[in-house]
Specification:
- The structure holds two protein chains of two kinds.
- Chain A has 15 helices and 13 strands.
- By secondary structure, chain A is an alpha/beta fold.
- Chain A is globular and about 65 Å long.
- Chain B has one domain (5-86): SH3 type barrels, CATH 2.30.30.140.
- In chain B, strand 2 and strand 3 (27-32) form a beta hairpin.
- Chain B contains two helices and five strands.
- A five-stranded antiparallel beta sheet of chain B has the order 3-2-1-4-5.
- Chain B is of the alpha+beta class.
- Classes of the chains: A alpha/beta, B alpha+beta.
- The interface between A and B is large, with 43 and 37 residues.
- The complex binds iron/sulfur cluster.
């Protein structure tokens, strides 16, 4: 339990762990999914699994936007980046994500003009500074990030920037959760809802999970205590026979979300009929595209894209990891052929990816648990 | 990119009400506050920032604990701050 001991609130964490243990029904096993990659990161970083009774298993969900971008989309983005007079801009997290023919980093090394930006507004600024080039922003992310992209498009309109477009890969969290609820190989008892996505969409959209699928969901903050507290809240609901959506992260998440952010998303983007998620396959209405009114800012309408679907590498089991069916270390190439330096799958790329988080922190705590049980 | 980083508002730009100068862990940067339209932000208020945009207003205590948490995660936060440092939102 060294990780938690190092943590400033070790006493509070210990007290919560005891409350959690007391709330578990003897003989019953619980499987909870933390949807968000940020939570996965905290869980491994602080060794929170060691703090839970053995009857509770945490499974890691699909809530890492970098991890779910399919190979074909990466290839399309690289194809655009390689067009003459194009500057591709991207968040740093996306740079190492492998497509069928390499990553942004590989393509940059081969001469394409690909630049890392912190914000879509930085991409717009690059466009203003390079009027003779076309600047594309590789837009990725859940509802947390989509409003920023939408506001950037509106600013481009207001400032009449004509050499700027977005390659829209924004995804929406609810259809992914639904796909997981309907996946036959996974039975879950409850969810920890994503924190920052919920600042935008609020807690209401999760109500169907409680109502139609009979699973509790607690929107959780990112600190170790938030996560333990949220697990306790889910367990308490189960013990009391309740099934509701609750908000542990009221400090940041308003119940109704950020209406302005939702409004700008709706103004600039609309749902796609379907979108491919790496490892999960095609999910209906699970992603956003640019509305016709803003067609001149839509990379997909400006360039011809190969649009080739690329199957995930055979060795890669990211799909199972993203659905929570496999733990990262159960993937055959984990830590051997697939490491953060040479990722085969996307879950190894971003620090929020389950495999990278586990590789960076989790394996140490697991080894210790093994040692402890041997001793 | 998924991190939410707290920052303290120094001033809302008089000619651009959708922009504020914000202190983020000692880095001073322009941040877009347009998504918090109804919030009446003023100097000293804390906001949670994601890719250059304020997503929600938070209180000081939340800001402090979020900062402590971020400092604890190390490299990912250092990278994010580095990226923010290079950012020039306008
Ligand atoms: S170890 Fe690599 S290939 Fe296997 S699931 Fe994780 S990211 Fe995918």
């Amino acid at each position: 339990m060294r990780f938690v001991d190092e943590y400033r609130d070790a006493d509070k964490a210990g007290a919560l762990a005891a409350k959690i243990a007391s709330m578990c029904e003897p003989g019953r096993h619980y499987k909870f999914m933390e949807v968000c990659g940020g939570h996965t990161h905290t869980i491994y970083k602080h060794g929170l699994e060691d703090y839970l009774p053995e009857s509770i298993q945490l499974v890691h969900g699909p809530g890492c936007p970098v991890c779910v971008i399919p190979m074909g989309r990466v290839d399309d983005a690289i194809h655009i980046a390689e067009q003459p007079d194009v500057i591709m801009t991207s968040f740093g997290d996306m740079m190492r994500v492998p497509g069928g023919r390499g990553s942004f980093f590989d393509s940059k090394a081969a001469g394409a003009d690909i630049r890392m930006v912190y914000s879509p507004l930085d991409a717009l600024k690059i466009a203003k500074g390079n009027p003779d080039k076309h600047v594309v922003f590789m837009a990725i992310g859940f509802e947390t990030t989509a409003p920023s992209t939408a506001v950037t498009v509106l600013r481009a309109v207001a400032e009449k920037v004509e050499n700027f477009s977005i390659f829209c890969n924004h995804v929406t969290i609810i259809p992914a959760i639904k796909a997981i609820l309907e996946s036959p190989d996974l039975r879950l008892d409850g969810f920890l809802g994503p924190g920052h996505v919920s600042t935008v969409i609020g807690c209401r959209p999760y109500e169907f999970i409680a109502r139609d699928y009979g699973r509790p969901l607690v929107t959780a903050g990112f600190e170790p205590l938030d996560i333990l507290q949220s697990i306790y809240m889910v367990l308490k609901q189960l013990a009391e026979g309740r099934c509701e959506v609750e908000n542990q992260y009221t400090r940041v998440v308003p119940w109704n979300g950020n209406l302005k952010a939702l409004q700008v998303i709706g103004q600039v983007m609309e749902l796609r009929p379907y979108f491919e998620w790496r490892g999960l396959g095609f999910i209906s209405h699970s992603a956003l595209k640019v509305r016709q009114e803003y067609a001149s800012f839509d990379t997909e309408r400006i360039f011809d894209l190969p649009g080739v679907r690329v199957a995930d590498p055979k060795a890669c089991q990211c799909g199972e990891v993203l659905k929570g069916v496999l733990k990262p270390w159960e993937c055959k190439v984990f830590g051997t052929a697939c490491t953060p330096e040479t990722p085969i799958g996307t879950c190894m790329v971003s620090s929020e990816g389950a495999c990278a988080a586990y590789y960076n922190y989790g394996r140490f705590s697991r080894e210790r648990v093994k040692e402890a049980t041997r001793a | 990119m998924c991190l939410g980083i707290p920052g303290e508002i120094i001033e809302v730009l008089p000619d651009r009400p959708d922009l504020a100068r914000v202190n983020v862990s000692g880095v001073r940067r322009a941040i877009n506050i347009g998504l918090l339209e109804g919030e009446q932000l003023s100097p000293g208020d804390w906001i949670l920032i994601h890719v250059g945009f304020a997503l929600s207003k938070i209180d000081e205590e939340e800001a402090r604990s979020a900062l402590e948490f971020l400092e604890g995660i190390g490299q990912a936060y250092a990278d994010e701050l580095q990226a923010l440092q290079e950012s020039k939102i306008e």
